[in-house]
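TASK: fixed-backbone design
INPUT:
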């Protein structure tokens, strides 16, 4: 898979923004199989040679889109408590999945990842980045004595998002605010009980 290119400014940045917007729209409407580089170039209003030269494959487009989505997702918030931090995280995930455009886009990417190894690798890299942003809130909680030493910070963060994604992918209605609060609370209870500690 081609690596995502550096993200310069100026015209190149405008081209990338237009192409990734067209990619988002194509994925949301037709999934990975509906992602055609020539059509993306047309919808973005750029030359198809530019798209083929810079990205080359639909999977490379998805990978770069995931980089852009990770960049836009925002930094962690430090509320001073593990529950507060994870509630913020869960709320962001819930609002994204409940958004008609964003939720549909994530569903399309996850569906594509189940049958395309390169898309799966790009999706894994995206979530690794997002988990790394929020893992320090668990590490801080260890330092405060809220959860046991040796708690797997990444596992706790994933435990917050997992039920929300499961809801989005298996229900006809998106997850709500109460679902987000419950996901955060459940992760905290499990972490406090030592479920995510080494040797648990």
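OUTPUT:
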């Amino acid at each position: 898979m081609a690596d995502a290119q550096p993200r310069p400014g100026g015209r190149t940045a405008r081209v990338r923004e237009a192409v990734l917007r067209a990619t988002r729209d194509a994925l949301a409407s037709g999934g990975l199989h509906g992602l055609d580089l020539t059509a993306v170039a047309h919808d973005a209003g750029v030359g198809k040679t530019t798209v083929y030269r810079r990205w080359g494959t639909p999977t490379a487009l998805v990978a770069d889109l995931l980089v852009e989505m990770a960049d836009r997702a925002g930094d962690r918030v430090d509320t001073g408590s593990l529950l507060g931090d994870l509630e913020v995280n869960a709320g962001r995930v819930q609002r994204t999945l409940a958004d008609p455009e964003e939720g549909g886009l994530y569903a399309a990417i996850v569906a594509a990842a189940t049958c395309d190894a390169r898309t799966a690798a790009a999706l894994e890299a995206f979530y690794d980045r997002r988990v790394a942003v929020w893992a320090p809130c668990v590490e801080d909680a260890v330092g405060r004595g809220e959860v046991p030493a040796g708690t797997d910070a990444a596992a706790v963060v994933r435990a917050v998002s997992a039920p929300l994604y499961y809801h989005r992918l298996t229900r006809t209605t998106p997850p709500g605010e109460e679902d987000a609060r419950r996901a955060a609370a459940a992760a905290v209870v499990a972490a406090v009980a030592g479920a995510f500690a080494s040797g648990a």
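COMMENT: Confidence is low (pLDDT under 50) at residues 1-7.
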